[in-house]
Amino acid sequence: MAEESRDGLEAVRAEKLRKIAELGIDPWGRRFDDHRAIASVRAIDPPKPAEGETPEPGPAVRIAGRIMLRRGQGKVVFLEVRDWTERVQVFIGKKQVGDQAWALVDLLDLGDLLGVDGTLGYTRTGELTVFATELTFLGKSLTPPPEKWHGLTDQEVRYRRRYVDLFSNPESLQTFMARSTIVRTFRKVMEQRGFVEVETPTMQSIAGGAAARPFVTHHNTLDIDLFLRIAPELYLKRLLVGGMERVFEIGRVYRNEGISPKHNPEFTMMEAYQAYGDYHSMMDLTEGLIRASIEAIGGGFVRPWGEKTIDFTSPWPRRPYFDLLREHAGVDPEDFEAVKARAQAAGIKTEGRDRDVIISDLFEATVEDALVGPVFVIDYPAAICPLTKRKAADPRVAERFELFVDGIELANAYTELNDPYLQEDLFRGQLAGQKEEDSMAKMDDDFVQALKNAMPPAGGLGVGIDRLCMLLLNKASIRDVILFPLMRPQAPRPVETEDDESEI
After folding, report:
1. pLDDT > 90? residue 3
2. More exposed terminus of the chain, fewer Cβ within 10 Å: N or C?
């Protein structure tokens, strides 16, 4: 809609606002108790009149919502009113609501908020309807809604004006209601399994616990730089040392990296740690969390994903990292010369880089996109896993898994390293060819000191909530499941001046 046209419509609505106030009605509304969700009203299903009969008054109901559609003229008006559960038709007659309410009807616009008292019944055409007896004005929309209520269709505008997207696109609202159900299910399952929810610092003095570039901020009073957390891991493991044997946290983490359909700089993660468990315990927990989420939102375990379907039926396969590399890259990981040749053919730099860094890049280039899943990839190269316990039979291999679905990493978990001497050595190590921000080897003296007080053997897990919601709700972009994704600031509207010759 052209800005000039929108400005004119806003002026018309502002004039209606003034006239509503002149009627003695508060145009911004007041408390409106005891209204029912429209979905529950629709579930009442009053008796339908026989053909040719006049509908009998039905049960009294009270609803509140946003006006989405208006039709009718003369002494009868029909509205469609929608709340966050459903929509329903409202019949308004001058005789039924009285003079003041009828004067208000003439000042109603699409997008206004309205409370309705009335009776529930059916029209002669069989449409379930609230027959209004009283109207309560609850709020004026000064901005015109998307044209013809077809909803916002420009994707970027939907992200920037999510408040409009939610009330004009019911599918978008249901997406975020489903997301809330998934998060609520995570909490329920974790509580059922004996985990305690905790909160740890989001501003940290060391950017540790994951491989990522942090955001940096400054604390003025202490005059120190701090990092927005890239993971809560090291604080949660301190709690294991303190005797909290099963802990989890659901919260925001921040990584100063690229933006893509799979990446947002701030995102929601659940991390959990279980004393006396291992990475097999975490695989069982992960599968249980995701299956419970699917049951909560409905739709079955075989779910659409773009033009594909993903089968989440248990059990999910557990495939060793090096077996997958042999299968998809066509090389033996033990033959480093063959690995280097295959990596170079894939455009991966090998000169001056550590063996396991090259293998990791080759795995990412040749294996990950081929993983339809869900599949647990287990037993990673130990050198790239400095927070992970090594396998007793082969210290070159770390007891780590990542869960992949259609090439998307959903979860990452370890058998946690609890040897303070080895942990200190690994923190100090930096693999050749690995960027500082790509390494988890960040020295944290206090964490090492904590381990010296004996951390129990444990399994640890991190699950990306946003990516999981993408997959379970069939959304192509992570921005579709984040209420307010980070966007580049819009350029300000130009200010017209008297000597502006742009129209000449």
Report:
1. no
2. C
CA distance 312 to 308: 13
Dihedral pair phi/psi, residue 334, rounded to 5°: -75, -20
Crossing angle of helices 465-473 and 170-192, in 10° steps, is 120
CA 206, CA 238: separation in Å to the nearest integer? Answer: 15
Q: Are 97 and 133 in contact (CB under 8 A)?
A: yes
Distance CA 29, CA 114 (A): 9
CA 401/CA 283 separation, integer angstroms: 8
User: Pick from 422, 420, 415, 481: which is nearest to 450 by CA?
Assistant: 420
Structure pTM? 0.89
Instruction: Determine the Cα–Cα distance for residues 355 and 243; give it in Å rounded to an integer.
Output: 38
Selection from 421, 188, 374, 385 nearest residue 279 by Cα: 385
Give the integer Cα–Cα distance in Å for 242 and 244. 6
Buried b (16+ CB within 10 A) or exposed e, 160-171: bebebbbbbbee
> Pairing state of beta strands 224-228 and 216-219?
antiparallel
Alpha carbons within 13 A on the beta-carbon side of 207: 20
Q: Positive or negative, the Cα torsion across 139, 144, 145, 150?
A: positive
**Cβ-contact 458, 416 below 8 angstroms:** yes
* Pick from 111, 77, 72: nearest CA to 97: 77
String of DSSP letters for 186-233: HHHHHHHTT-EE----SEESS--SSSSPPPEEEETTTTEEEEE-S-SH
Question: pLDDT band at 7, cuts 50/70/90?
Answer: confident
pLDDT above 80 for 4: no
Nearest to 249 by CA among 233, 264, 271: 271
**61 CB contacts (<8 Å, ≥6 apart)?**
36, 41, 44, 117, 118, 119, 120, 130
H helix runs in 311-419, sequence order: 321-329, 336-345, 355-366
Report in angstroms the alpha-carbon separations of 247 from 180, 250, 393.
Answer: 21, 11, 29
